[in-house]
Structures are given as C-alpha cells and as structure tokens.
Amino acid sequence: MTFKSQDFFLNLSVKDINKATHFYKELGFEINPQFSDETTSCVIIGENIFAMIMVEERFKSFTKKEIVDTNIAAEAIFCISTESREQDDEIVNKALSIGGAPYNEAQDHGFVYIWGFEDLDGHLWEVAYMDKSAS
Fold this sequence. Notes:
By secondary structure, the protein is α+β, with helices and mostly antiparallel strands.
C-alpha cells in the first residue's frame, strides 16, 4: 500500500510567538488565522505544507520528551525550494536582516544551489534551488 498525505504539518516550539510570527511574515509567508491563536501561529509554507509554531508550553502538551535546546543541538534541517538562485539569496539575506543567524555558507553544486539560516529560535532552514532541466 502506498500512502500520500493530504497535508503536511511541521510543529516547532518558539520562545515568543509574536516575534516568531513576525519573523515568518517578514520572510514573505502568510499566516492562517483559522489555526492561530495567542500560543500558536499556522505558517503557510506551500500548498498543503504548514509550520505550526507554538510557544514551548503549548508544544510540551503534545509530547513527553524534552524540547531540543537548539543552542547546542540540531533537531533537524528543514529545506524549502525556490524558483531561482536569486530567490534563495533573497530569502536568506532577508532572514539574516530580521534577526536570523547564518549556519552555513552557500553551496553551489551546479544543478543545485543551497543556502541556509537559523530562525529566531535556532531552527535550521535550508533554501534550495534545483535546476530540474539539468541531467
């Protein structure tokens, strides 16, 4: 049996919901108010792809595990794709200008270009352009 999800929800803990929401809005993402409140914001990443950013106490209500300290450990690297190398640079430069931090150098592999940033809460994001016409 093959399974394909209808929607994808990424749940992330944040220290300050207002600052984190502002950060993602400044990057150009929309917020879905239907699934947002004073503890959670639903960030629309793409068609059927959402990041549910929530204050730590709210996040803790979903798990018995400790929240990763992103100052010393990486929980994962989330990668979003773009339409061009220029758009990669634009997004990462914007993230850095509004409080994000660099975590790697841009990587140019010819058919794929990747650069990344840490958001305000230390979550790692890569922004990638892949030339699908390259073989």
